[in-house]
């Protein structure tokens, strides 16, 4: 596996105001010098945009202390093909990290158009721009890294989920679009020799995360005195992965594009790879809720005498959900010497502290 240095690279991050994108930009600015980051995000209203603005401010704060590096933000959608091509023409990114997507399993049932526009058309535009980055014998994109999802495993019964498993049974449109991304990237890697790596993320959580995720929405509801619904009567397990672990994994992968080489037929072997990034340790949903409530009390988000039992409701499985997510991370460990290690308690503690600071300190 070849290695490329991130120093002095121009890196395009799509979905840069998103949870993983913003944390990645901050980490690159913190640890790589100099680095030139171009960020694109349409700041859509799928969830509270004040959280997205908060993340962008975190990036701005970091770059202010790194005068040798640059940060350029473009508010736009990757579904705008002409704009994407113009960004590639102007900035000539050497590494592209595509994290822009319409997320969420349940929302894909009520608003499928958003998934086709962002996840299929948008990703196609990124692939086309990568393809044309080699025109006129330009050096072009050295590595395309893109977000896939554990949702691609769908109704697979075998666990832990391995990238060697067949993933032909999606149970949501969201999952189908992410599997499509992997197929599209493979085709472009084969046809145009574009080094690409897909990352199947497993339930990413942490401070300033997505409010539609269970840990965040549970906190909002408990604070409002509402009931939280625990699906499949609590018989769910999730491979929760702390955002810092995800970012470290992405950063390592960025530096190791699949090697370009030819097969016996003289044609390019697709420089293409897929990895799971998960905690390799699924947690029972009821245990997760128990730890969350302890940490919310510890952080002062909820009072010590809060009656959790009266606010818990066990309900059936939701359409599009799966009972267990569990990542086989052997390939990630073998190729990059890396395995996520943040415990669920430590991660939820940091989330609860952030939540208190972001939502409640200003009210005190």
UniProtKB/TrEMBL annotation:
<keyword id="KW-0520">NAD</keyword>
<feature type="domain" description="NAD-dependent epimerase/dehydratase">
    <location>
        <begin position="11"/>
        <end position="278"/>
    </location>
</feature>
<dbReference type="InterPro" id="IPR036291">
    <property type="entry name" value="NAD(P)-bd_dom_sf"/>
</dbReference>
<dbReference type="Pfam" id="PF01370">
    <property type="entry name" value="Epimerase"/>
</dbReference>
<protein>
    <submittedName>
        <fullName>GDP-mannose 4,6-dehydratase</fullName>
    </submittedName>
</protein>
<dbReference type="InterPro" id="IPR001509">
    <property type="entry name" value="Epimerase_deHydtase"/>
</dbReference>
């Amino acid at each position: 596996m070849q290695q490329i240095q991130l120093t002095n690279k121009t890196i395009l991050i799509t979905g840069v105001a998103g949870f993983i994108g913003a944390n990645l930009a901050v980490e690159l600015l913190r640890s790589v010098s100099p680095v030139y980051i171009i960020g694109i995000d349409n700041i859509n209203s799928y969830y509270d945009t004040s959280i997205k603005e908060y993340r962008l401010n975190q990036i701005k704060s970091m770059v202010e202390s790194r005068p040798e590096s640059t940060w350029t933000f473009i508010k736009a959608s990757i579904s705008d093909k002409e704009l994407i091509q113009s960004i590639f023409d102007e900035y000539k990114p050497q590494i592209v990290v595509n994290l822009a997507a319409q997320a969420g399993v349940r929302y894909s049932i009520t608003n499928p158009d958003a998934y086709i526009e962002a996840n299929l058309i948008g990703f196609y535009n990124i692939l086309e721009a990568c393809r044309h980055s080699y025109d006129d014998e330009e050096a072009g994109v050295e590595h395309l890294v893109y977000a896939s999802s554990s949702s691609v495993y769908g109704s697979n019964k075998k666990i832990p989920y391995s990238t060697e498993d067949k993933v032909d049974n999606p149970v949501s449109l969201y999952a189908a679009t992410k599997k499509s991304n992997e197929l599209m990237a493979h085709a472009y890697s084969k046809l145009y020799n574009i080094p690409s790596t897909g990352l199947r993320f497993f339930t990413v959580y942490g401070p300033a995360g997505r409010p539609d995720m269970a840990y965040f929405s549970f906190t909002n509801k408990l604070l409002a005195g509402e009931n939280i619904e625990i699906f499949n009567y609590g018989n769910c397990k999730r491979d929760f992965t702390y955002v810092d672990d995800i970012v470290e994994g992405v950063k390592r992968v960025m530096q190791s594009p699949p090697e370009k080489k030819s097969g016996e037929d003289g044609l390019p072997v697709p420089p293409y790879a897929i990895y799971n990034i998960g905690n390799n340790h699924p947690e029972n949903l009821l245990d997760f809720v128990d730890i969350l409530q302890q940490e919310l009390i510890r952080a002062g988000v909820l009072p010590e005498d809060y009656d959790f039992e009266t606010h818990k409701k066990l309900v059936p499985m939701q359409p599009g959900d799966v009972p267990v997510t569990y990542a086989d991370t052997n390939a990630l460990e073998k190729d990059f010497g890396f395995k996520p290690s943040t415990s669920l308690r430590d991660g939820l503690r940091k989330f609860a502290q952030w939540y208190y600071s972001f939502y409640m300190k200003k009210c005190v």
